[in-house]
Each structure stands twice: as C-alpha cells, then as structure tokens.
Amino acid sequence: MKVFAASFLAVMLALGSNPAASHGAASNAVAPAKAQTSALAEELTIELIGAKAQYEKAGRSERSARLGALQSVAKDRHDLLALLMESNPGEVLRLSLPRAVQSSFPGEAVRYFEQEVTEEGVLTVIHVDMPGEGVDRFLYLLKTPAGERSLHFATRPPTLATGTRIRVNGTRLDKAIALGSSDDVTAVAEAYANTFGVQNTLVILVNFSDLPTAQPFTPSQAATVVFGTTSDWDKENSYQQTSLQGVVTPWYTIASTSLTCDYNTIASQAEAAATAGGYVLGNYKRYVYAFPSNTCGWWGLGTVGGYPSRAWIHSKYGFTLPVVGHEMGHNFGLWHSHSLDCGAGVVCSGGTTSEYGDTMDIMGGGPNSSSPHFNAFQKELLGWLNSAGLPPLTTVQTTGGQFTIGNTEAANNSTPRALKIANSTACAATTEWYYVEKREAVGFDSFLSGFPNVPSGVIVHRVTQGDSDSSYLLDMTPATDSWYDPALAAGGSFTDPVTGLTISPTSVAAGTANVTVTYAPGSCTHTAPGISLNPSATQWRAAGGSVSYTVTVTNTDSCQCAGTAFTVNAAGLPSGWSAGSAQTGVLAPGASGTANITVTSAGDAAQGVYSFSVVAASQADPSKTSAAAATVTISNTLNVTATPNAATFKRPKGKSSAKVTISTLVTSGGGSPVSGAVVTVVVKNPATATVGTFTASTDATGRANVVYTITASNPLGTYGITSTASSGGLSGSGSSSFKVQ
After folding, report:
1. Could you tell me which CATH class the domain 197-332 is placed in?
2. Quick check: 640 and 724 in contact, CB under 8 A?
3. Residues of the chain with CATH 3.40.390.10
4. How many CA atoms lie within 13 A of 9 on its CB side?
5. Helix (H, G, I), strand (E, B), or coil: what is residue 237?
6. Considering the domain 530-634, what is its CATH architecture?
7. Which partner for 658 in 214, 233, 552, 710 could form a disulfide, CB atoms 3.0-4.6 Å apart?
8. pLDDT in tens, 91-112
9. pTM of the model
10. pLDDT in tens, 423-477
C-alpha cells in the first residue's frame, strides 16, 4: 500500500492540486479522487501507528532504517492531508492525531504532523466568481503575527466581513487551518462598515510582462464604467446616499506574466506601480485592479467588505457594470443572492439551490447584460433601507393585516419599500423571514419591461435569521421553467406549508402594491430534531475500549405540539461493537436536553478508523430522526512519554551526587491513563553504554517515576532515556534525553 499511496500522491501533485496555487478556484482534477485520497490518508494514519511500533521494537542496528520508514510514512500522510485541506477539510479533522498520541512519536516524525491550534488575527474574505458555475467559492485568510493562514471549513463557514478580528480553534497543517464550522470562530472585534457617502476608489490598470502592449480599454473608458455607470447605479440603489469617485491610473506593465493567476502578486505589483506613479494609496478606501484576460478562470474576485476593499477584474468577461457592480457589491459586504427550486412547489426543506440563481439581483445572475437592483434584504444589510431618513421596511410578526408597499426603485420617501414577514407564530422564536417587494421597469431595472410578470406582481425572498448569505428568490410560478417570471401575481396567494402563513397581493398598480398577510391558527407539526455530540472529534482507543458521548437534542417541533422525549442510540456500528441506549427527558418545542450513551469497540478490533452514527428519534413521531457522525480510531499500542525533571544537570564534585527523576506517562488511545503498566527505563551515557535499568509500575494517573543518580564519575554529554511500557498485551515506548555539564 505504501508504494501505491506514494505513486497516487505523485499523480495528484502532477495534476496541479496544490491548494496554495489554486487560490480558491479548486482544481477539478482532484474532485473525482476525493474519496480515494481520503481512504489513502486513513490507511497511512494507521500505517503510521504500525511504523512507530516497529521503530520502537527495532534493535540498535535496525533503528535508523525504521526511523527513516516512519518519517517516510509521516511525510506521505502530510502531503495527502495537504490535498484534503482544501478539497475536504472535514477529513483532516477526522484523521487528526490527538496531542497525546503525537507526543509519543520521535521528533523526526512529529515535524510532519498537524497541530491543534488557537490563533487570532484579522480576517480577509475573498469571493471567487466563476462563470457558469453554481458553486460558492470563497477564500478565507487570517493575518496573524506569525504570518498568513488560509482557513478551510468542513461546513457552515461564517458570514463575517473582511477586517473582522477573529479567534479560531482548529487543526493547522503548514499554513492552512481546518475548522469544523462557524462554531469554531469567535469574532473578537467586528469590521467597520461604511456604505454611505462618497467612496474614494482607485482603479489601477495593469498588463503583463509578456503582453506589455495589451490595453483592452482606455483609462477614460474605465473611468466611465466605474465613476459614471457604476456610481450612478449605486446612487439609484442607495436612494442617493452612496456614490463612487476617484481616478483611473494609466496602464502599467508589471513583472507577472499572463500565464499566471496569482491575485496577491497582481495586487502588490499593481499597488507598487501606482505608488511609483505618484498615487497615494492611503487616499482611497477601495481598490480595483483591472487587467487583460489571462489564465484566470474566474469572472472576478472581490473581498467581502473591508478597508481598503479590493476587486480583481480582467477583460475576458468585460469591464462593465454587471461585473464591476457585482464585485463591488462584495466589497460593500454582500454575499450572493440565490434561488430555491422546489419543483412543483414553492418552498421545501430540500430542493435545488442555485448560487447565482436570483435573476432579480446583480448579486445573482440577471438576464443578459442587465444590472438589477439589490433586493430588499441586501439593501437592508447595507443600511440603504430601514435606516434614519431612508425608506422603511414594514416588519410583520405574529399579527397579519393588509399592507401597502411602494416600488423599490422609487426616489427616497417615507413609503415602505418591502414587507419583512416573520415565518413563525407567537410562541416560537423567529428563525426565518419572507421579504416581499414590488419591482418596476424604471431606472436600472428598465430591463423588466421584457418580463411583464414581475411589474404586475410582487417578488418574494426567503431569508434565515442572522445569516447574511441566506437570500433565496422563490419561484411563485413553478409550473414554468423560467426564472424570469418569479413574481406572485395580484389575486394570487402563497401559503407556507409548515406554518400556514399566507401572503396575498390583493392589488398591484404602478408604484404600489397592497398585500394581505394572514397567520393561520396554530397546528402541531413534528420535525426532525437537532443533534450534537460531545466529544465531536475522533476518539482514539485500544481494542475493547469505550467512548462515552453526551448527546444534546433540540426539539424543533412547532410550538403547538406537546413536549416529547427523544430516544438516542448508535447506528451502523462495526461488527462486534456494542452501544447502550438512552432517552432525554420530555422537551418542550424549542427546548434542548441531553442523554448519555457509551459505545464499546470489539475486543479483537484491528487497528483502523471506524465510523458510525448517533441517532436521535422523536417518541412523538419516530419517523422524525436526526443523526450525528462519530469516529473512533483503534490503536493497539500504548503511548509512552519519558520526561526528566530537568534538561541539564551540573556534574557534582567529590562524593556529592545529583538526582535525575524520570517520569514516564503511559496512555492508551486518545490519552486515557493506563494504570498498572510495567515500565522499563533504560539510561545510556554519551557513549551509548547502558548505565542504568529501572523497572516500575504506573499509578492511577498512568505515571511511573524512577531516579537515576549522577556522580562525579559520570562523563559529560547527552544521556539517552528509553522508556518501554506493556499492559494487557499492548506495548509502546518513548524516548528523551538530558545533559550533564
């Protein structure tokens, strides 16, 4: 397997799967091999344990070769984890070696290992817009005192803006950190946002050293797009609150070639050229780097917020309002506007989502070269709706009625521009909202004259509370295949199938729409519960060992339901494994409770990585279940560390002596202490001659202490320590040293 793994790794690297080089536009060549890469990394993790055991058992003549083999496995595993860091960071977390396990390896192998870290710094979020793709691609970078780290999330990345100071808890490999989700990120200081007033912008035009005469548009044309068309678009969207002003540089030739796509280098070389040209970068809060088409496959890049904000745009897809406005929308702090396709229905718990699916928003994908307004939710995020002196929203919560809204494009006045409707009832916290707005074929939305369904009705978006990346356009005409007729027409109605909330535009005319909102009488709806595990990380145990889990279950039934208990058990256990069953107390809707279960591995389980699920089922409706994944790694060796009470001792004189207390810690699996283990400690002098052999047994904490005595006759130099432990048929060893001077 070792040779095969190494060969596979060479192929992967030859395909250009270096995460550091892909800059967020991940190589498609890696995708089909994700599962294979993960399986090989898993095998190498187990092989690593075996190589360590062989190294520890090796005699003096074989020890060097065994150490080399151990290093080789460690390096191959490192390189595979580096591939998984970008393509599947959850696997890096699953296969991570706990500190207690790492501490038992020699330093020559440890240098290839991942590390559990807590780091703090300033976040940069860059969105990579890929043409024709429905994939959300983000780069998350953390600037720390020790250097820049790339952040890779297994699921649910945070929706924090560039410039936010954060603290992360994850697993670092080289300069990349794997994180489970936004739960592993703490915002220490929020980014300062300013989306009002004149935005000073510097547009830097650069071409490449291999194409020094390429100038796909003139500085004057670029200025017209940014400070003319795009600025006018911002003014209209913001009700005359926000505009762009600044300058466009001449074309500069930078050292990079058109055969590379390193956005950081392009930015730094462009800024250096502008500075040399006499531009003071500190006078501008927004930078736009514009350059001829090169090997970059993306449409554009944009930091999500931040000062200075940055946008990278090449000429392949045009230096036009749809591109510039979209990327600078990211710069203002916006994420994408999506769509939800539920087939014959309007909303559903599954459905198909499209990253750029909102055809009525420039942060989605408008038709042809149009540049639709931001939707009402996005405008609210920017402060352009519902702020002092700007058009309001009408918030509807628990009590319905009839409401009037004006079209979103109209000049600033006191008429509400949208309804923000809570999709809940009085007894439940609001976690979801419907935004209802009226759009007309005026200004930059004039393209709507070709799509009469929209001006004659209202469009509806669904948004999750507190999630700025959760704007989904709903298709109110699911019988058609088009996403350019999403409006709910006058006289029609939409009813949420879970809550019974009904939205009905009773009349729609030029500049106004009247909408009736009705909350249905409450009824009980059972739903799958929420579930989480503690511990959630991979646990390491010897064969026959047990893992105890605290399972937190949340009742997500509608608030009209009676409380219910939840049964918790394990599913998909490997052969020979066993688990208990437990249940929570009765939980009211919205409440959480815990249950504890223990999973015991088979006594003859081979070394390996084993996965199963912990399942919570509602006793009120047993069909409503949720599962959380759990992983246990079986390692049939002991982890042994030997530590002297000091690193250096002064050789005594005359008849005096010095005591070296050597403490041996023996643990099994992920760090559980092993009591009663037989420990043999061997001390060798600088000439590698044995000068002391001691035997002891570990106490309840897994420790055994022995004392070696230094006298005036001891030679100067480094003394080696080897501690070997055995218990219940398992064994392991660890080494250390001290100096006599």
Report:
1. alpha beta
2. yes
3. 197-332
4. 23
5. helix
6. Sandwich (2.60)
7. 710
8. 999 999 988 788 888 889 999 9
9. 0.81
10. 975 566 678 999 999 999 999 999 999 999 999 999 999 999 889 999 999 999 9
